[in-house]
Design goal:
Shape: globular
Number of helices: 7
CATH superfamily of the largest domain: Peroxidase, domain 2
Number of strands: 2
Pfam families: peroxidase (PF00141)
Helix content: 25-40%
GO biological process, one term: response to reactive oxygen species
Cofactor: Ca(2+); heme b
Strand order of the largest sheet: 1-2
CATH class of the largest domain: Mainly Alpha
EC number: 1.11.1.-
Structural class: mainly alpha
InterPro entries: Ccp1-like, Haem_peroxidase, Haem_peroxidase_sf, Ligninase
Length: 170
Amino acid sequence: GGGADGSIAIFADIETAFHPNVGLDEIVALQKPFIARHNISHADFIQFAGAIGASNCAGAPQLAAFVGRKDATQPAPDGLVPEPFHTPDQIFDRIADASQGEFDPILTVWLLTAHTVAAANDVDPAHSGLPFDSTPELWDTQFFLETQLRGTSFPGTGGNQGEVESPLAG
């Protein structure tokens, strides 16, 4: 485990307990019966689902899904996915390491555009599922614009690790 190898589905009982994966257990539980009914590796299905899911967002690029990945034989170690409280340098370093040097900071920022359709499940447990920007149904650059705006209030209770003030009310 530790890459695009389907370990999150194969070892869901372990990996969905990792902090950055909180909330993915529900998605994996929905995907596992489909994987079991079809002749596809867990690794290929996860990549296929990601490409289709992203491509179906309004404004998103049409992504290709390539098959032939081998399934994981062991769970990924905890700590591989960057957390909301990590510094940009920590995130850049982790992604560069995971991509074996293929991702520089610019490509990492491009990768992070996926957060335009994402939500926070565990930053503030009292407010699970808050979107990261004001247009969660659109694949756009609003996430980056709103990240640069001065925050005025916390979207949740405040004081949680990884939580920052939002420029938007509510």
